[in-house]
Amino acid sequence: MKKCLISVIVPAYNEEKKIGGVLKSLINSSLVDEIIIINDGSSDNTLSIVRKFKKIKLINLKKNHGKSYAIVKGIEKSIGDIVVFIDADLTGLNDSHLAKLTNPLILGKKEVVIGYPNDIKTDKLFLPLSGERAYWKKNLTPYLREMSKKGYGLELYLNYIFRNKKMQLFPLNGVKTTLKYEKQTYDIVAKLFLVESFDILSEILKQQNPISYLLKSYLYSFYIKKPNKNNNQIDKLIKYVKNNLIKKINL
User: Which structural domains are found in the chain, ordered by start?
Assistant: First the structure.
């Protein structure tokens, strides 16, 4: 297998409770060549915890700029051929997960790999918005300026621009994410919920054709698939939607 440099980019905003564990997992990894932490204007002890770790590259933003801005700053400073985005609130992350994110790119089988923690029993429709992702850096470079403006709408945007590429979406078995109210104060949770919801909604509504954008960046790429021969009623419904709705909006 050809050796490729792998840079892991971790944006962090008020992640004092979990970021230490994430950094330990990444530092102990035999697959990671570079770890970049972007402290996005945290008001808790995130920065002081990060500074205790060696072998990482720290980007300290004194003001909170939002997730997408922080990630772009990390990409710009990275040296890797492959960039991997990892959230700062995970537990259970190890080399096997990082290998599943990066190997499909290295082997040329996929161009986008998205992994999602599978511990939370939530609506499956949220899976394509997972923050655990791997891309070839060269494929992201042309879009960095636009990416920096997306906030929490970044994942939708990335899904859209890579909609015709070979994607893989898979569960990160054993990886757990922390709910916002478990790690931050309620006022910050409320703020983040509103910002996240606004970013995602505005990213959809500002498009010339919001329905087409939503389907291409979200539903179509991940959920509307050709049914198998032995499929049930849900598969038949998906086929009906694909044949009747998508054609009408001229995808």
Answer: 6-184 (3.90.550.10), 210-248 (no CATH)
Give the pair of three-digit tokens for residue 61: 């933003």
| Long-range CB contact pairs, 181-190, < 8 A, 24+ | 182/17, 183/14, 183/15, 183/17, 183/18, 183/89, 184/14, 188/14
pLDDT digits (tens, 9 = 90+) for 149-161: 998 889 989 998 9
Instruction: Give the pTM.
Output: 0.79
Contacts of 103 (CB under 8 A, 6+ apart): 1
Contacts 24+ apart (CB under 8 A), 23-26: 23/50, 23/53, 23/56, 25/93, 25/94, 26/56, 26/86, 26/93
28 vs 34: CA distance, rounded Å? 12
pLDDT digits (tens, 9 = 90+) for 94-140: 999 999 999 999 999 999 999 988 765 554 656 778 889 999 999 99
